[in-house]
Write a structure and sequence with these properties.
Elements: E1 2-6, E2 9-13, H1 22-29, E3 48-56, E4 62-70, E5 83-85, H2 98-105, H3 115-128, H4 134-141, H5 152-163, H6 169-172, H7 174-183, E6 190-193, E7 198-201, H8 205-214, E8 219-221, H9 227-232, E9 240-243, E10 253-255, E11 259-263, H10 268-278, H11 280-287, H12 292-297, H13 300-305, H14 313-319, E12 323-328, E13 331-336, H15 337-340, E14 341-343, E15 346-347, E16 354-361, E17 367-374, E18 385-394, E19 397-406, E20 413-414, H16 416-422, H17 429-442, H18 453-472
Parallel strand pairs: 1-5, 7-9, 8-9
Antiparallel strand pairs: 1-2, 3-4, 3-5, 6-7, 10-11, 11-16, 12-13, 12-16, 14-15, 17-18, 18-19, 19-20
Helix pairs in contact: 2-5, 3-4, 3-5, 10-11, 16-17, 17-18
EC number: 1.17.1.4
Enzyme class: oxidoreductase
Keywords: FAD, Flavoprotein, Iron, Metal-binding, Oxidoreductase
Length: about 475
């Protein structure tokens, strides 16, 4: 059985189909049609809901943390022990919530189909920001698409809703909600079981390892932003899933003198502070890693584990010399991330083995790290090419080099010929040009709807030139740039 709060109503579920998304659950099982299905792939934001969880603040006090999610990519099992807030829950005692009223006052709705998703993103923004600036509002709304308004009135609604916010029913009930979430906090492995399909929800790494050992055929579910597409887009059935999002040990970011250790189930939003503090370019790239809804849900381990050749984090992590800790049962092994990827969607992971954590070296001022993303649009888009450069230059000579690309091969991959062309050579434009030619030895990219093979190779070469120019003129800040 799983338990969660729907708005303020306690829900207990056991026999639901684990392949059921929150979007379908709201609309088809509960008759709450306010949440809309636009794309069923996490692109449009019409299905946005907000999930509240218990969190501990810097002051050591417990509070509620609200985050926007795409309900079309969220399986119901991930709600275990949390609070789900749908658009129907905002209106209170016959009065519109302040974010809804702001959309009315600022004429932020026309056809209205996208409006509930915008309202829920604004609600999350209001809860997480006292007085957000334009950039914060744009980031919060970047995952919501509107074909009618041109966004200006919606941004005006964001300003009104957040800068003139008044306490609402969620603030009034906060202490009660915290108490209710504590009361339903999971104490043992939960399960959804429809007879022929099941999803298990362990609470510890040890339990996860045992369950995965007993069910090696199971699909591991973390954020689900990739796995759920198999259900919503490819119409597959997933007979057995194990949800890792309630394993607290895998949702931590620990800082040591020489490294960061990031639990594989840590949401990308939670990775941001640590990674951006060490590597500003990593932080900039995470701002462009899909939408806020996806970053709130997707995990660093999942982005690695699905072995996509166009995943944004692996090239950066490879260039930084990151490692992963793989676990099976009680046994663990540590593997350089670059050795994890073998071929297209094929990895070194063994049966019943899972990524427990990612180890990232801390920043070293002797190295110059930069990252760049080339995509058709600035926000919420998949890379055509993702590049990461990490060089150590001593007295004008390249002493060490780690260069990695995504989108250039069947796997995220180091550019070894390019590195060889740089090593031991003066860090000059002549050396860079030779290294650019070596990139043609490293990669034979494919053409697809994102970019031609010629565009990808030339783009990769130009990014290396860009890296050189930026290091020569550090006042130029044009990193993580999109090329249209």
């Amino acid at each position: 059985m799983i338990q969660f709060l729907l708005n303020q109503e306690l829900r207990s579920e056991h026999a639901l189909d684990p392949n059921l998304t929150v979007l379908e659950y709201l609309r088809e099982h509960l008759g709450k049609p306010g949440t809309k299905e636009g794309c069923a792939s996490g692109d449009c934001g019409a299905c946005t809901v907000v999930v509240g969880e218990l969190a501990t603040g810097a002051d050591g006090q417990e509070h509620l943390r609200y985050r926007s999610l795409n309900s079309c990519l969220t399986f119901v099992s991930s709600l275990h022990g949390k609070q789900l807030i749908s658009v129907e829950g905002l209106k209170h005692q016959g009065k519109l919530h302040s974010v809804q009223q702001a959309m009315v006052d600022c004429h932020g709705s026309q056809c209205g189909f996208c409006t509930p998703g915008f309202v829920m993103s604004l609600f999350a923004l209001q809860k997480n920001s006292d007085a957000p600036d334009l950039h914060q509002a744009q980031e919060a709304l970047a995952g919501n698409l509107c074909r009618c308004t041109g966004y200006r009135p919606i941004l005006a609604a964001a300003e009104q809703a957040c800068c003139q916010a008044q306490p609402d029913q969620f603030d009034t009930a906060q202490a009660q909600t915290i108490a209710r979430l504590k009361a339903i906090a999971p104490t043992e492995t939960g399960e959804l079981n429809s007879g022929d399909k099941r999803c298990l929800v362990p609470l510890t790494v040890a339990d996860l390892a045992d369950l995965y050992g007993s069910h090696p055929e199971a699909r591991l579910l973390a954020g689900g932003t990739d796995l759920a597409l198999e259900v919503t887009q490819l119409h597959k059935t997933l007979p057995v899933m194990i949800y890792v999002g309630n394993v607290a040990e895998m949702k931590r970011v620990d800082t040591f003198e020489d490294r960061l250790e990031i639990g594989a189930a840590t949401a990308l939003t939670d990775c941001y502070e640590a990674l951006s503090r060490e590597y500003p370019d990593f932080g900039e790239l995470l701002h462009r890693f899909a939408s806020l809804q996806i970053r709130n849900q997707g995990t660093l381990g999942g982005n690695i584990g699905n072995a996509s050749p166009i995943g944004d984090s692996p090239p950066l992590l490879i260039a930084l010399g990151a490692q992963i800790v793989l676990r099976r049962g009680q046994a663990t092994r540590t593997l350089a991330l670059e050795d994890y990827f073998i071929d297209y969607r094929i990895t070194a992971r063994q049966d019943s083995e899972f990524i427990e954590k990612i180890i990232v070296p801390r920043a070293n001022l002797a190295w110059a790290f930069r990252a760049y993303k080339v995509s058709k649009r600035l926000d919420d888009d998949i890379s055509a090419v993702c590049a990461a450069f990490n060089l150590r230059i001593d007295n004008g000579v390249v002493a060490e080099a780690r260069i990695a690309f995504g989108g250039m091969a069947a796997i995220p991959k180091r550019a070894l010929a390019c590195e060889t062309a740089l090593l031991g050579k003066p860090f000059s434009m002549a050396t860079i040009e030779r290294a650019c030619q070596a990139l043609a030895e490293d990669f034979t990219p494919l053409s697809d709807f994102r970019a031609s093979k010629e565009y990808r190779l030339l783009g990769a070469q130009n990014l290396l030139r860009k890296y050189f120019i930026e290091l020569q003129t550090p006042h130029i800040e044009t990193r993580v740039t999109a090329y249209v």
